[in-house]
Amino acid sequence: MKNTIELDRVGMVYETASGPVEALRNISLAVGEGEFISIVGPSGCGKSTLLRVIAGLRPMTSGTVLVDGTSVTRPIPKVGMVFQAAVLLKWRSVLDNVLLPAELAGLNPHKFRERAIELLHLVGLEGFTGKKPNELSGGMQQRVALCRALLLDPPLLLMDEPFGALDAMTRDDMNLELLRVWGQETGGTGRKTILFVTHSIPEAVFLADRVVVMSARPGEIADVVNIELDRPRTVETRATADFGHYSLQIYETLTGQMTGDNSRSAQTLS
């Protein structure tokens, strides 16, 4: 499998008024093309910083980052980003919000109109193209944000807790929606490579091929868990014993605590 992302001993130190703060330390990871990676870790461990380093929005202080074999030294063009807040422009329609990346890239938005409409149809918003953001629910706004990130057909999608502010049922719906969009071609490049930051262990397990578990600051990779659950994932997936075992393994790595029968858990999760 070709690697889309290669991180080699990446470190990040912030300079503050009270002195340097080490956010990331010795991060090494290869992410294959079309792979779905979830990233979990304590608050402040550098998960969001890592996404910004990969996108070229923050310079690393040590190590190297390669995206498609090219060293990242500036913001990279072939990436879509989705944040916890949808950040839609309230005075623009749904369709015009989706078309915004084309405008910002200096492209003719009219040439992307058909694609924008196709993406909105894909996520069930075909009847809302003329609506304003304040006429949409939180989950619908995040669907618009996802379409906006996909408009220019980027091979890489970086998602920073995009569903964290949603209620539990809407969040579950958005997980299924994201997997449905990811699992089929949405343009010329086919399946995207996705890095997905979340604080929810069940969400991380449900979505990912692998879950990267980070330590407290300075953020290091404490474990990488291969999630060998059948796809497509469904609501029933969450009720399986394997799903529970993966979730427990990640919880124990994050907290350093064994749960239940320690010896039995260790044998089951090893």
Task: Write structural notes for this entry.
With 270 residues, the chain is of the alpha/beta class. Helices cover 33% and strands 24% of the residues. The protein is built from 8 helices and 10 strands. It has helices at residues 47-55, 94-104, 113-122, 138-150, 168-182, 201-207, 241-255, 262-269, and strands at 3-16, 19-32, 36-40, 62-67, 70-71, 79-82, 156-160, 193-197, 210-214, 221-226.
Q: By helix and strand content, what is the structural category?
A: alpha/beta
Distance between the termini: 26 Å
Task: Please give the count of helices.
Answer: 8
Return the string of H and E elements. Answer: EEEHEEEHHHEHEHEEHH
Strand order of the largest sheet: 6-7-8-3-9-10
* Quantity of strands, as a count: 10
* Morphology: globular
C-alpha Rg, in Å? 19 Å
Unreliable segments (pLDDT under 50, ≥5 consecutive)? 185-189, 262-270
Beta-strand residue percentage: 15-25%
Query: What share of residues is helical?
Result: 25-40%
Main sheet summary: 6 strands, mixed
Question: What is the typical, i.e. mean, pLDDT?
Answer: 89
Short description:
The chain has 270 residues and is α/β, with parallel strands linked by helices. It is 33% helix and 24% strand. The chain is built from 8 helices and 10 strands.
